[in-house]
Amino acid sequence: MNITVIPAAKDINESKIKDKIVLVIDVLRATSTIATALDNGAKKIIPVLNVQEAIDYKKSNPNYKIGGERNGIKQPGFDFGNSPLEYKEKIVKNETIVITTTNGTRAINHCKSAKKIILLSFLNLNSVNKIVQFEEDIVIICAGTNDLFSIDDGVCAGALIYNLRKNNNCKLGDMGLACLTLYENTRDNLHNLISKCHHYKVLENIGCQFDLEYCLKENTLNIVPIYKDGYFIKNEI
Amino acid sequence: MNITVIPAAKDINESKIKDKIVLVIDVLRATSTIATALDNGAKKIIPVLNVQEAIDYKKSNPNYKIGGERNGIKQPGFDFGNSPLEYKEKIVKNETIVITTTNGTRAINHCKSAKKIILLSFLNLNSVNKIVQFEEDIVIICAGTNDLFSIDDGVCAGALIYNLRKNNNCKLGDMGLACLTLYENTRDNLHNLISKCHHYKVLENIGCQFDLEYCLKENTLNIVPIYKDGYFIKNEI
C-alpha cells in the first residue's frame, strides 16, 4: 500500500488527490465533530467553505441546521459551534447539518476530485483502518491550522499508519515516516505531546478543555463518515 | 527565543524570512558539502540557482571552480559533484567555488532578503548553536527534497533545537515541536531513522554510501558558513 501524507490543507493539489482514496484529518475539531454528529444520528452533513454559504443554505432550506466556527467560535445565527459535545443525539437525530470550519471543511472542499473522501480522527481510527486496509493507495490529508502543519493531525495520521502496517506492506514518504515515528514514540502519552501544540493551546484558552479530552480518545466511535453527492453520511463498521 | 521551522524550500516566503536570522539545512548534501569545502580552505562559495548560471560564472572567471548536481549526479563541465568527500584541501584551498544543487542552493537563493543566512548540517551543529544562541528569533529552513519535507533535514533542525533548549526558553511552532520530538526519540540511533528516508535511498542507489556516513556525523567541523555579498565564507568557532 502506498501512503502519501500531505502536511496541511494548502499543500493539496489536484495531481495528488484526483481519483484517489483521500482521508481528511482535523482532530481539533472538524472531523471529530462530523463523526460524532453522524454517530448521534444526523442524516447528512454538508461541508461548505464559507459562513455565508452556510447561512444561504439555511435560507433555502429552513429545516436544515447550521454549525461551525471562525477563530474557534460559533457564528451568529448558527445552531451549533464546532464542539463535538454540542451535537447530541436529541438535537441532531435525522437532521441535515451544514458545517463550515476554518481548516477542516476547507481541506474537505479542496478534495472534491478525489475518488472517495473519508474522515479520520482518533475517535474512529479502527473503523477507518477496516475500510481502507485493502486499498492500493491512500492519501492522508492533515488539515493543519492556518496553512501550517498541526501535530494533532500528524500524530493521528501516524496512528492510522501504525495500525495499517500490522497487516500491510506500507510504502511511506518522509512525511508519513515522520508521523509514524512521532506516534510510535509518544503513543503511551499522546495527550502530553499534543497539549504542547499551537491549536490545542488556542482551544484551551477559549474554554474547550472538554472537547480536547473528548477528541484525543482513540476508538470511541464505530463509524466512518464518507462523502457522496455533496454530503457525508455514516457508514457503520 | 522564537524558532520557526519551515518544512521545505517551497514554503519559504518573503514575510517569513525578510530581515530574519535564517538557517538553511540540506543535510544530504549541500550544506554538509559547503561547510566541508570551507573547512578545507575554500575562500568563497557562491551558491547559484541553475547549472547554466554556474557555467556562465566560469566563462567570466576561468579561475573559479564549479560544483554541484542534478539528480544527484555531477554535471558535464563541472569540477566537482555534490559529494563533500570531493572537496579535499589540496583541491579547494584558496579557491572560489560556484555551487548549484537541486534543493540546497535553491533554498539558499530564496532567502536573499534575510538579515543573515547561516548553513547548518549535522557536521557543524555545535558551532551554529554557539553563533545563534543569543538571538531573539531564528527561522530554520529545511531544504527538503523536490518540494517535500525530508526527514534528514527535519531531524537536524530538531537536533539544533534540542541543544538550544539547554540554555534558552525556546518558543516552537508545531513543525519545530515535531522535529524536536523526532530527534529526542531517535537520537541514539539517528542513522536507522534517516536510512529509511527517500533521499537517503536515492543517494544509496547511486553509490553515495560514504557521503551518507560522513554527513550524519555530529560536530566534526568547527565552522559556520555565513552568507555575505553573494557568497559564503568560513566563520571559525
Main beta-sheet strand count, sense and barrel state of chain A:
5 strands, parallel
CATH fold node name of chain A: putative 2-phosphosulfolactate phosphatase
Q: Going across the biggest sheet of chain A, name each strand in turn.
A: 6-2-7-1-8
Percent range for β-strand residues of chain A? 15-25%
- According to DSSP, the number of beta strands of chain A is 10
Roughly how many Å is the radius of gyration of chain A? 16 Å
Shape, principal axes of CA atoms of chain A: globular
Within CATH, the superfamily of chain A carries the name ComB-like
Distance between the termini of chain A: 21 Å
Query: Average pLDDT across residues of chain A?
Result: 97
How many structural domains of chain A? 1
Helix content of chain A: 25-40%
- Which structural class should the secondary elements of chain A be placed in? alpha/beta
CATH architecture assignment name of chain A:
Alpha-Beta Complex
Instruction: Name the helix and strand elements of chain A from N-terminus to C-terminus, one letter apiece.
Output: EHEHEHEHEHEHEHEHHHHEE
Which oligomeric form is depicted?
homodimer
Q: Return residue spans of chain A where pLDDT drops below 50 for at least 5 consecutive residues.
A: none
Total helices of chain A: the number is: 11
